[in-house]
Amino acid sequence: MSIVVAALLTGLLLSMFNHTIGAPYIILFVLSSLVVALFTEARGLFITVACIPLSFAAITVLTSWFNGRALSPNISGFSATALVTALYPLLQLFPVLFFVTLGSTLIAFLRLSLLRRRVAEGERRERELRRRTAEAEQRNQETVSRLNSTSAARRTRHASSGRTPQRPPRTAAPPEEPSSPWPSDRARASSRPRYSAQHADRERRTYPGAPRQDYPSARRPHRRDY
């Protein structure tokens, strides 16, 4: 609002110098009104636009009164003639005031409409972003739950179908041969190699086709009668 007032006061000085309200006054008013309508913050835009015609009317009447006093110093400043002379330029410039005010109002309305649309678009994008984030989190939770259920089912299946490994039966050691009471038989038994079950198993693994050697047990001697 101060921009419009400053422009009108500048036009007032130029009009007093020229003793008439001319084109510089109108140009300054139009430019200042457009600048205010385009660059004022949205929260104070309507108040600023509404004050434009009031400022123009007040400063135009004041400018005309100063010009009348300069051109007719003998006429009283508060006479009816002086007041009518001061109001007459305002009536002449009313079309300019009307179109400038209308243009400023349209600019303010368009700015507010675009601002509201931009705010609505931003809110829509935020809602869309929140919705996508929620869907992604839900998909992740479903994936984790599905993996957990699959792992649990697999462990249960393995536990139900698993078998305890059985140990192979132990091979009994061959019975020891009874010792013979005769010295000659004991000597032959001690000189003969002994084969245990482990040795026989090792030989079968090493030579699978070899026949098994069975060693006869020591012959129990018979007691002779001398």
Short description:
The chain is mainly alpha-helical and 226 residues long. Helix content is 71%, strand content 0%. Among the domains are: 1-40; 86-157.
Describe this structure in words.
With 226 residues, the protein is an all-alpha fold. Among the domains are: 1-40; 86-157. It contains seven helices and no strands. α1 (2-18) packs antiparallel against α2, α2 (23-39) packs parallel to α5 (94-161) and α3 runs antiparallel to α5 (94-161). The longest helix has 68 residues, at 94-161. It is rod-shaped, with a radius of gyration of 60 Å.
Largest sheet: none
Kindly provide the radius of gyration, computed on alpha-carbon positions and rounded to a whole number of angstroms: 60 Å
Low-confidence stretches: 214-226
Order of helices and strands: HHHHHHH
The residue-averaged pLDDT reads: 75
Overall structural class, as computed from helix and strand content, comes to: mainly alpha
How far apart, in Å, are the first and last alpha carbons? 156 Å
Strand content range: under 5%
Counted by DSSP, the helix tally is 7
Number of strands: 0
Biased composition (Polar residues): 141-153
Transmembrane segments: 46-66, 97-115
InterPro entries: DUF6542
Keywords: Membrane, Transmembrane, Transmembrane helix
